[in-house]
Amino acid sequence: MELNSLKAQIKSGSFDHFYIWKVDEPAIARVYRDMIAKKSGANVSYVDTIADVFGRARSRSLLSTKTLYVIIDDKDFLRNERAWKALGDGSELKDDIVIFYYTSADQRLKFWKNFKDRAIEFGKLDDRLLVKHIQKDVPLSEKSCHTLIDVCEGDYSRILLEIDKIQNYSDSINLGDYDMCLLQLLDEGAIYKQPKDAIFDFVSAVLDRKPKLAYDLLEQSYAVGEANMVLLSVLYNNFRAVLQVQTCASSDVAKSTGLNGWQIKNARPFIDRYTDDELIHALEILRETEVGIKRGEISDEVSVNYCLVNIL
Q1: Spatial separation of the C-alpha atoms in residues 43 and 284, rounded to whole Å
Q2: Which of 83, 97, 146, 201 is the 20 to 30 A CA-CA neighbour of 284?
Q3: Burial of 181 (0-12, 13-18, 19+ CB in 10 A)
Q4: What is the Cα–Cα distance from 17 to 66, expressed in whole angstroms?
Q5: What DSSP state is assigned to residue 269?
C-alpha cells in the first residue's frame, strides 16, 4: 500500500480494518496514527497481541468507544495464518481498527509476501524534508538544521526531542536567536553528539594548530575505541608529508618526495602552519614516544596527550 493511498483514506475518513506498518521512523508513523484516530473518532490503545484485540472486541458493549489498537512487533501474528483469516473481512473487529507496527521485516516470510499490498513503510526522511519539518517547529537557519540532522543521525524522533530542548532553553534565557541556542546546547553537551570516527579530523586539527578542536576530536577518537599507537602513527605520517611538501624546491613534488597525489593534496592546506624546525621537532617527539611505549618508558594512556603538549 502506498502512503498516498493512506493519505486519501484519511482525507475521506474511510479506513481499512487493519494496517501493517514497517516503522523505521516512529515520529512520522505517530503523526499518521493520530490523524487516523482523530478522523475516525477512535481512542488509541496499545496492546501486546492480536489475541488481546479479539478478546476486547467480543466483549464490547453497544456504548463502548471505538478503539484504534496499536500492536508493536507481534511475532506470533507473523505465523498465525488463522489470525490473518480472522482479520480478513473485519468482522472480528466490529468498528475498531488495528495497526501492526513492525520495526524489522524479513521479506522471506510468507507473512510479508501475503500482505505486501497492505504494508506501508515509514522510512527515514531525506535531509530536504527534515529541514522543512524542523523549520515548521523552530526558526533555525538551514545550516543549523543540517547541524541538528547530522547530530541526530537523521532520526526525526531524536530531532523532535532536541527541538524541545532548543525551544525551552530559548524561553528560559529569553534569547530569540535559535541558532545560537543550538550551538550553546551542543557546546554544553545538553544535546548529545554520537561519537564518530574522528581520527583524520583530529590529525587535521593538530596540523592546523587548533588545540581546542584537536583535544575535542581526540576525545571522540577515544570514544570509538581508537588506539593510541594508531593515532601516533597517523600523526607521524601526516607530519612527515607536510614537511616533505613544505621543503620541496622541485616543481615535481611527487617525483622528489615519493608522495602520491592524494598525500600531496592533503598536505598542502597545512603548509607554513609550522616552521621546518617545528615539523622536525614534532616528528622526533612522535617517534620517541612510539619507541618509549614499546620499551615501557612511556605510558600508553598519556602518550598522545604528551605529544600534543610538546607539539601544539
Answers
A1: 71
A2: 201
A3: buried
A4: 12
A5: G
Residue 64 has which C-alpha cell?
A: 463502548
Q: Mind listing the pLDDT tens digit for each residue in 229-248?
A: 999 999 999 999 999 999 98
Instruction: Locate all alpha helices (DSSP H) within the chain, ordered by sequence.
Output: 3-12, 26-40, 50-58, 81-88, 110-114, 127-137, 142-151, 156-173, 178-187, 199-207, 211-223, 228-247, 253-257, 261-267, 276-295, 303-311
Higher pLDDT residue, 189 or 271?
A: 271
Please enumerate in sequence order all residues whose Cβ is within 8 A of that of 50, keeping only pairs 6 or more positions apart, or say none. 71, 74, 76, 77, 80, 83, 87, 98, 100
Given this model, what pLDDT does residue 91 score?
66
- In 3-state terms, what secondary structure has residue 153? coil
Going by the DSSP 8-state scheme, the letter that residue 258 receives in this structure is: -
Which residue, chain included where needed, has cell 553528539?
193
Mean pLDDT of the chain: 88
